[in-house]
Structures are given as C-alpha cells and as structure tokens.
Amino acid sequence: STGSLSKAITIIQIATHENNMTDFILATLFIAAVMFLGLLISDGNERQRRAIDGIREQAARWAEGDLRLKRAKLTHEIRIENPRLWLEGIANRVLGTHVSLTDLSLWNSDRAKALVATCADGNRLVVTPMPPERFVPAVQVKTKRGLTRRLHQAEESLLGDKPRRVPAYELSVVTAGVFFDLEAQNVWQQVTGEALEAERMYLFEVVR
User: Full-prediction pTM beyond 0.70?
Assistant: First the structure.
C-alpha cells in the first residue's frame, strides 16, 4: 500500500543516515515485498476481469442462440390477424404516445410503396421499407411544365407540404420488438401481396 511504501522509504532514509546496513537491507526487502504483492494483486484483478468478461460473453452468445431458435420456430407460425391493430401497437411503442388508427391502406407509385394509416386525431402515419433519404425524394413531386397546381398538391400530400421536415422513426427488432421483422413481413405480404425483403422499416408521422 502507499502508507507501507512511505514507511519503508522513511526507514531507508533513517538507516542511510545512521549507516545501519541491517535496517537498510530489511527496508529494501520490505519495499520489494510490497511491490511484488502489488503485482500479484494487479494480476489477480486482471484475471478476474477477464473471467467475468468471458462469462458475460458466453451468456450473450447463449441468449442470442436461444433467440435464434425461438425465431426459427415462429417463422412459419407468426400470423398477424389485424394489420391495423398491429401497426397501432408499433406506433404506440415507438412514438411513446397513444395512437388510434381508423384505417390502413396501400399507397403505391412507380417509385415507392408505403402503408398509410389515418389517426383518429387527423394525423397520418406512413410506413415504408425505403430509407428516408430515398423515400422523401421519391414522393416529392418535381414541378414540371404543364403540370397543374391541383395535381401537384394532390401528389405531394402524402407527407404534407414540407416532406423533408416530417419526422421519421426507424422500426427494427431493437425499437419495435424482437419479432418485428417477421411480423412486418407478414403484414406487408397481406397488404401489398408482395414479399418484404428488408429487415427495417421507417415510420413517418405526418401531423395535420
């Protein structure tokens, strides 16, 4: 310890001052013993840390393997009876507020697909497997010569007047539940009639 080492150094100083060779040797041996003991303790702590890290890593691997087995068994068993209620539960979890959906439908264009749900308060939720950096430009209509203002506004209304400012939330097994990807595949298949390849989806909250 620091106190013992200081005491030993003091002994050495006294022994040197009094020319007492025996005390000098004893003090030197004492310092060496303290240093050796410190090394042993340090080495023991490092071994203990490595052992704990090993146990933690093994536990994580076991949990991951167990989850894979459970997911594999449920792959063909998961069936979402009501896609609207399923999306309502996902939205409640991700947004952290109570959301009540009145309908759910497919929005489809030549550049993008999305699930669109109307909220009881008039807001709208848009869910798509396309990342925001690709989806927003895909649904944002570019002004062309001869395009009427009414048609332009109608096509742009999916994400509102300012689509780039609409908040987007990533939906994954981390944010929306450990079986989200399997459930999302089931819902997407029911609503669109197509397979969903992506493991993540994105939810846009369009406030009226």
Answer: no
